[in-house]
């Protein structure tokens, strides 16, 4: 099913209510709506957080997220500076949002 972001059920903060509504086209629309142009580096983190959630059935806090990214991709990408360059307004929050996941714990 190829829906667009505007027609999908979302929370008041714009997070998808059903992660199964997500696809790469929806991710592009979410990113654009939040002022982010997705590059390969963004997709790497978006797919990582989506797979993390599907595997562990929960979303990490910021510290655990950075540590998990470091474990998966190495020191160069597994640090706050790199992740904030990709998602300036909050790496965990916006990678989750673009990945079609719920709002992570501790995000305002």
Describe, in plain words, how this protein is organized in 3D.
The model has no long low-confidence stretch (mean pLDDT 93). The protein has 108 residues and is mostly helical. The protein starts with 23 loop residues before the first helix and ends in a 10-residue tail after the last helix. The chain has one domain: Arc Repressor Mutant, subunit A (Orthogonal Bundle), CATH 1.10.10. It has five helices and no strands.
List keywords for this structure.
single chain, 108 residues, Arc Repressor Mutant, subunit A, 50% helix
Helix percent reads 40-55%
What structural category characterises the helix and strand content?
A: mainly alpha
- Ranges with pLDDT <50 over ≥5 residues? none
Major sheet = none
- SSE pattern: HHHHH
Any idea of the CATH class?
Answer: Mainly Alpha
Q: Number of helical segments?
A: 5
CATH topology: Arc Repressor Mutant, subunit A
Distance between the termini: 31 Å
Judging from the principal axes of the Cα atoms, what is the shape?
globular
Describe the SSE topology.
Layout: H1 24-33, H2 40-56, H3 62-73, H4 80-86, H5 91-98
Helix pairs in contact: 2-5
In short, what is this structure?
The chain is an all-alpha fold and 108 residues long. 50% of the residues lie in helices and 0% in strands.
């Amino acid at each position: 099913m190829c829906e667009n972001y505007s027609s999908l059920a979302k929370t008041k903060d714009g997070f998808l209510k059903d992660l199964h509504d997500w696809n790469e086209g929806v991710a592009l629309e979410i990113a654009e709506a939040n002022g982010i142009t997705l590059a390969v580096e963004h997709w790497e983190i978006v797919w990582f957080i989506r797979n993390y959630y599907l595997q562990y059935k929960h979303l990490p806090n910021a510290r655990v997220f950075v540590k998990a990214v470091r474990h998966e991709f190495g020191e160069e990408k597994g640090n706050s500076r790199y992740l904030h360059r990709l998602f300036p307004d909050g790496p965990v929050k916006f990678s989750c949002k673009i990945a079609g996941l719920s709002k992570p714990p501790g995000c305002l």
